[in-house]
Amino acid sequence: MSLPNLWQRIRNTARDRSPDVEFQAEIEEHVRLLAEHYRGQGMTEEEACLAARRQFGNQTLIQEDRRAKKIIPVIESLQGDLVYAARMLRKNPGFAVAAAVTLTLGIGANTAIFSVCNAVLFKPLPFYEPDRIVMLWEQTATGAVMTVAPANFADWRNESRSFSEMAALNPNSSFILPSQNETARLAGAAVSSNFFSLLGVRFALGRNFLAEEDRPGANHVAILSYRVWQERFGADRDIIGRQVKLNDTSYTVTGVLPADFRFGSSAADFQPRNQGVVDQFLVNAPGDQFDIWAPIALNAEKLQRGTHPLRVIARLKPGVPLAQAQAELNVIATHLAHQYPADNRDKGIAAVPLKEQATGTVRVALQMLLIAVGLVLLIACANVANLFLSRAAARRSEMAVRVALGAGRGRIAQQLLTESLLLAGIAGTAGFFLALIVISVLSPYLPADLSRAGGVRPDARILAFTASISVASGIVFGLGPLFGTARAQAGEWLKASNRVAGGGQSLLRNGLAVAQIAIALILLIGTGLMVRSFVKLIHVAPGYRSEGVLTGRLSLPRSRYPDNHQIAVFERGLLEQLEGSPAIQSAGFTTYLPLSGSDNGWAFLIEGRPPLPTGIFNFAKYRPVSAGYFETLGIPILRGRSFTRGDEREGSPWVVVINESMARKYWGAEDPIGQRLRFGSATWRTVIGVVGDVRHEGLGGEMKPEMYVPMEHAPNVESGPTIVVRTALDAGSASAQLRESVSAVDRTIPVDRIETMDQLLSRSVAQPRFRTVVLAAFSILAFVMASIGVYGVINYLVIQRTREFGIRMSMGATQTDVLRLVLRRAAALIGAGTFLGVAGAVLLVRFITKLLFQTAPVDPLTFAAVPVVLAIVALTASYVPARRATRVDPMIALRYE
Question: 103 in a domain, yes or no?
Answer without folding.
Answer: no
